[in-house]
Design brief:
Length: about 250
């Protein structure tokens, strides 16, 4: 039996977010340098993306590079940026084949010019695709995103366009970089680390968390299925009692 057939399509999470962790430890375990782990992770990205799209997931968000990652050794950051450019360029035909639209969030202006140009080109090439939306979080930090959102709202108040008493959840959501995508229902973190790492802090208020000890380069289709099956066993109450939602 195909493992995908075990999933109840009527209870599929519309948006899955992934903290892709463990590349460095995987490389060390293989006797290689950290960038070897990052290169080996491309297969996990491809298989997860294609499997999610095949299942009918509407949105997939991958935490590819955080604002804190800029503090890593210069050689590793440069190698990561080169790998990112090559990967985006190489995977564009696959995105087209699978009708996937590429999106990006984060302080994209901080990316090297060639990286930003390649990213922009791929987003432009896939903008008319009507299938799953794949969002890459690049140079992204949720605290920074919330800070920028607060500034936008403060400017609206200063200009007299918004009254402070009218600020609500929807106001804040509309000012975030994720304003055009729904909050994730499922967040997967690989490598066994039990933290959020400054990722989608506002958006995951009611997100189900799934942590697997598997390192990201080893993450495959069956691991995505395992996460979704676990999600489908949970009772999502949103503050209500179990009896209220039945």
């Amino acid at each position: 039996m195909d493992i995908l057939s075990q999933i109840d399509r009527s209870k599929l999470p519309h948006h899955i977010a992934v903290i892709m962790d463990g590349n460095g430890r995987w490389a060390k375990g293989q006797g290689g340098i950290r960038i070897f782990g990052h290169r080996s992770a491309i297969k996990a990205v491809r298989e997860t993306t294609e499997s999610a799209a095949e299942l009918g997931v509407d949105f997939l968000t991958l935490y590819a590079f955080s604002t804190e990652n800029w503090n890593r050794p210069k050689a590793e950051v440069e190698a990561l940026m080169t790998l990112l450019v090559d990967t985006i360029h190489g995977e564009t035909p696959t995105l087209q084949k699978n009708n996937i639209r590429l999106n990006a969030i984060g302080s994209l202006e901080a990316l090297p010019a060639n990286c930003l140009n390649t990213l922009t080109s791929c987003m432009k090439a896939t903008e008319k695709n009507t299938g799953m939306v794949l969002t890459l979080a690049l140079s992204y930090g949720s605290r920074n995103d919330i800070t920028l959102a607060v500034r936008k709202i403060a400017e609206q108040v200063q200009k007299g366009e918004l009254l402070p008493e009218n600020i609500d959840d929807k106001t804040i959501k509309s000012a975030l970089s994720t304003h055009n995508i729904p909050d994730p229902e499922l967040l997967i973190r690989t490598s066994g680390e039990q933290r959020i790492s400054n990722f989608l802090l506002w958006e995951i208020a009611y997100t189900e968390l799934y942590i697997t000890p598997k390192l990201w380069p080893d993450f495959r289709r069956e691991d995505l299925v395992a996460a979704i099956l676990d999600f489908q066993k949970r009772e999502r109450r949103f503050g209500k009692t179990g009896e209220q939602i039945k």
